[in-house]
Each structure stands twice: as structure tokens, then as C-alpha cells.
């Protein structure tokens, strides 16, 4: 699965929230990242993916040439033209037909926000959110059982599959390092 980061994770690494928001907006305007709205019953937060990972998530998920061509057009639309978290019916109908919009909803590229408005999404967000919430529950349950409410990083190295979203794993460490170093420079 392609890396998905929560804005709150970046806030935990870099103290200045205004600085983080400013740089994320600059990156989004430069088409380096794609901001995504996570809607859950308990948590409404913003996630982001690097632009390359956002595009490759569609290639990893689908094999049909028709769907991939539509997803490629959608990625170009999202990264270059519509940088908002959502898309309105008027805006999206300029680029896609009703049938294509329905297909984008089915493949997870769009989620319904309200009548005529969709959240921009990614096909990996559902899996990420399930694993993230499961990891959160496992982590809290593990800490409740501990006497001093602390745990070693090595505890999560394979024992809990979804626990890895709460710990910087080697595969994601490079992305986090690049993000933080660019923010600090």
C-alpha cells in the first residue's frame, strides 16, 4: 500500500502548525502532494499523499485499461486543476461525464459529500483508515495493560499488522525524513 500521512502526524513532528499548513499549501499548488479528507464517525482529519504515490495507487489497484485511462485523467484533474479537498458538480462535469463520475465513485476516487459535491479520495484510503483505527485500538489496549503506560518501539515490529501506522517504519521513514527536512530548510 502506498504511504498515506495524516496532517496531525506532521504536526507532531514539527511544532509550528502555520509553517506546516503553509508548506503543504505550497506543495499542493506545485502538484507535489494531494490533500485528502478522511471522513470517519469519530475523526474528521486531513491526510495527504505524495503526488507520485497518489497516481501509482490507482495503477496498483486497477488493471483494466479503461479504468486506468479514466483514473489518469482524474489524477491530472486533481493534481493540476482542482487542488481543493472537494469538487463541485459544475467543475467536475466540465471534464467528466455522469457515467465517468459514477465510475470514479465506484473505484474510490470520489466519495459523496452532499448533493452535487464530492470529496477527492484515493482507492487506498479505506484500507488505510481501517488499519489506522485498528492500530489505534491495539495500541490503546496494549497501553491499558501496561503498568507505566509506555511501550518499546520493538513491541509493534510484526506483532500487530496495523500497529505499523503509528510507528515510523523503515519504508516510510525516508518519506517522513524528506518531508521534515524540506519543512525545516
Describe this structure in words.
With 185 residues, the protein is an alpha+beta fold. It is 54% helix and 15% strand. The protein has eight helices and six strands. The chain has helices at residues 7-13, 17-29, 51-61, 65-81, 89-93, 98-107, 125-145, 170-184; strands at 5-6, 33-39, 44-50, 86-88, 110-114, 117-120. Helix 3 packs antiparallel against helix 4 (65-81). The longest helix has 21 residues, at 125-145.
Average pLDDT for all residues = 80
Give me the oligomer status.
Answer: single chain
One letter per element, helices H and strands E, the order comes to EHHEEHHEHHEEHH
Percent of residues in helices: 40-55%
Physical arrangement of strands within the biggest beta sheet = 1-3-2
Distance between the termini: 29 Å
SSE class:
alpha+beta
> What characterizes the major β-sheet?
3 strands, antiparallel
Shape: globular
Query: Helix segment count?
Result: 8
| Total count of strands | 6
Query: What value does the Rg take, in angstroms?
Result: 18 Å
Amino acid at each position: 500500500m502506498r504511504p498515506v500521512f495524516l496532517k496531525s502526524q506532521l504536526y507532531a513532528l514539527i511544532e509550528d502548525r502555520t509553517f506546516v499548513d503553509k508548506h503543504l499549501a505550497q506543495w499542493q499548488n506545485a502538484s507535489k502532494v494531494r490533500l485528502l479528507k478522511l471522513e470517519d464517525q469519530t475523526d474528521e482529519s486531513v491526510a495527504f499523499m505524495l503526488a507520485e504515490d497518489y497516481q501509482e495507487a490507482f495503477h496498483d489497484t486497477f488493471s483494466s485499461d479503461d479504468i486506468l485511462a479514466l483514473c489518469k485523467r482524474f489524477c491530472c484533474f486533481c493534481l493540476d486543476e482542482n487542488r481543493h479537498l472537494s469538487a463541485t458538480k459544475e467543475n467536475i462535469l466540465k471534464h467528466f461525464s455522469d457515467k465517468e463520475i459514477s465510475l470514479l465513485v465506484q473505484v474510490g476516487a470520489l466519495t459523496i459529500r452532499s448533493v452535487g459535491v464530492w470529496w477527492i479520495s484515493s482507492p487506498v484510503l479505506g484500507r488505510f483508515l481501517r488499519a489506522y483505527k485498528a492500530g489505534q485500538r491495539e495500541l490503546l489496549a496494549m497501553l491499558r495493560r501496561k503498568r507505566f503506560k509506555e511501550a518499546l518501539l520493538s513491541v509493534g515490529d510484526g506483532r500487530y499488522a496495523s500497529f505499523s501506522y503509528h510507528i515510523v517504519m523503515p519504508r516510510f521513514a525516508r518519506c517522513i525524513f524528506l518531508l521534515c527536512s524540506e519543512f525545516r530548510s
